[in-house]
What does this fold into?
Amino acid sequence: MHDKVLVLGGGVAGCAAAIALARKGRSVTLIEREPTPRHKVCGEFLSGEALEDLHALGIDVASLGAVRIDYVRLAAARRAAEAPLPFPAASLTRKALDTALIAAAIAAGVRVEQGRSVQTLARTAPNLWQATLDDGDTREAPTVFLATGKHDLRGYTRPKDPQRWVAFKMYFRLGSAQAAELAHASELMLYPGGYGGIQPVEGGIANLCWVVQGRYLARLGNRWENFLAKMQQDCPHLAMRLAGAEPLLAKPISVTHIPYGYIRRTTEDGLYCIGDQAAVIPSFTGDGISIALHTARCAAAACLAAEPAPVFQAKLRSALRLQMHLAEFAADGLNNSFARAVLPFCLRVWPGVMRVTARLTRVTQPAAVSPQAAAG
Ligand SMILES: Cc1cc2nc3c(=O)[nH]c(=O)nc-3n(C[C@H](O)[C@H](O)[C@H](O)COP(=O)(O)OP(=O)(O)OC[C@H]3O[C@@H](n4cnc5c(N)ncnc54)[C@H](O)[C@@H]3O)c2cc1C
It folds into this structure.
């Protein structure tokens, strides 16, 4: 029994931790509420660190069709500026990535239960956790990894999100000239109340993902189509990209309650919190997947070394703090109307600042990524 581990949530963090533990001989059961991976709200940018971690897990993003991303472009009002990324990067739909991760977990010997939702988690004895599933079934283990991402489990909720952020994702088939302009670039667009990103993903399509504070959306009747029109008015660069574009979903997928800046302070013995359950970095950094993989790898190592979960969680918090503060600081800047007006101009004059910001908001300094991991 003491070798048993329960992983709650089969997204990036849950799969990564489950694979690492199973490879070291632990008996791992992973519970994922979706019967099969589906689209998730995410910009789908994979940073250099994420590529390295995925490669170590045996995920070859190039063979999944990932698109290489070489540039970052910032657009606000009527200006745009671009800079090369200071690390290798790629983009891949979450559906493809999550499918590959679940397959890798099964191949590593993880017992994967898909289509089962965890309702409650409770300690039933000093050294035993019990998860109750939607049909009343229970699973028990002395060690649990909480990896339910944006969804909080009852009793383990993260703090409220005072800005009431709402995030949307939509796929488009761009006009051919616009698709050619976007190729190998990740574009960040600024507008009052939030920001959005557009980048190519596999299959010749583009992912537009955007966030907006609740009060700005409310001013437009809480309607995404009104806000998308306003974004294009405020940021003509986006209007140009979307001219003649064909939407590929009936409506965008969305998610609410995103406690940006959150880092978990404490946990209980035997409960390791990873991914978005450990920390939520502002989305413009494109580093959430990397943090999910990083926290999963560190938590698995801590568990294998018998480091108590509360000690691990406190160490993780101090390791992530500086990066999180810098990302929050930069996010505040993006939300400032003066900054929006002058940023692209400043970046044209000194494009290096974009590279510096991209580096400072990473969870770890990137090392070289092996050729197999780099996308085509
Ligand atoms: C608008 C936006 C844009 C983003 N863009 C990027 C980007 O471009 N690049 C990047 O690196 N990061 C990005 N992120 C962040 C990134 O999406 C997350 O940080 C990352 O997905 C976290 O991984 P996770 O494993 O913690 O959660 P997830 O990948 O969300 O996985 C959690 C899993 O748990 C399952 N689950 C939930 N509740 C239960 C339950 N009760 N029982 C069983 N299973 C359950 C879910 O179905 C899900 O599969 C973005 C985030 C947002 C909001």
